[in-house]
Amino acid sequence: MTALNTENIQRIQQLCSAHNATLIAVSKTKPIPLLQAAYDLGLRDFGENKVQELQNKEPQLPADVRWHMIGHLQRNKVKYIAPFVYMIHSVDSLRLLEEINKRAKQQDRVIKVLLQIHIAAEETKFGLDADELHALLTSDTYQKMQHISISGLMGMATFTDDTDQIKREFGYLKQLFDHTKATYFAADSAFQVLSMGMSGDYELALAAGSTMVRIGSLLFGSRAMH
Ligand SMILES: *Cc1c(COP(=O)(O)O)cnc(C)c1O
Predict the structure, then answer these.
(1) Which of 10, 68, 179, 224 is the most buried if burial means most Cβ atoms within 10 Å?
(2) Residue 183: Cβ-neighbour burial (10 angstroms; 0-12, 13-18, 19+)
(3) Res 222 pLDDT > 90
(4) pLDDT tens-place string over residues 79-125
(5) Residue 182 burial (CB count, 10 A)
(6) Cβ distance 173 to 155 under 8 Å?
(7) Which of 2, 214, 222, 225 to mutate to test ligand 1, by most ligand atoms within 8 A of the CB atom?
(8) How far apart are the CA of 220 and the centre of ligand 1, in A?
(9) pTM score above 0.85
């Protein structure tokens, strides 16, 4: 088990609070005692990318943890996290949104979601483009939903050393966020989250206007590849 990097946690938390941003501790693959240690240092937002791991960890940490689902989510698994998930960052289709709405209704909840936007050059990353975002937000299906709250956008930049490229991608997402807020959410104060930035690029993300950074390795040490 790797150790918690308390120095990094304090430094990143300070930077986040200077930017009015929330630090999400990405705890995927990490054991419960490490999450508990992060909790004891004051962290309350934890991010996981697998439904089963989220389900397994949730009852083992204090009830005031806010659990963020940050990984690709299959529709048939939404029901397992609907009772407790705080925010789903990875919504990339209307059909997934419909399923979340349905399961949230069964739980008598309103679940906060972010729409994931494809900003990276890599083909493999999930997400909507600007046209698909527009189509989703103007659809009748979405407008009838009462058990989801679209709280903002999420994106992942290309994995590259080219900081200009990362800045362009984050800059584009920030612009799309501002435009979407002004166009579709002018009367809805819930739309305020821009989730971008990971261990390798969170400083660029905060400078570009991120309000939520999702950081794993810098807090918990690097993950074994598996
Ligand atoms: C793993 C993961 C992160 C955190 O990655 P680090 O490089 O360890 O900070 C952030 N966002 C998503 C969607 C992830 O899957």
Answers:
(1) 68
(2) exposed
(3) no
(4) 999 999 999 999 999 999 999 999 999 999 999 999 999 998 887 77
(5) 10
(6) yes
(7) 214
(8) 11
(9) yes
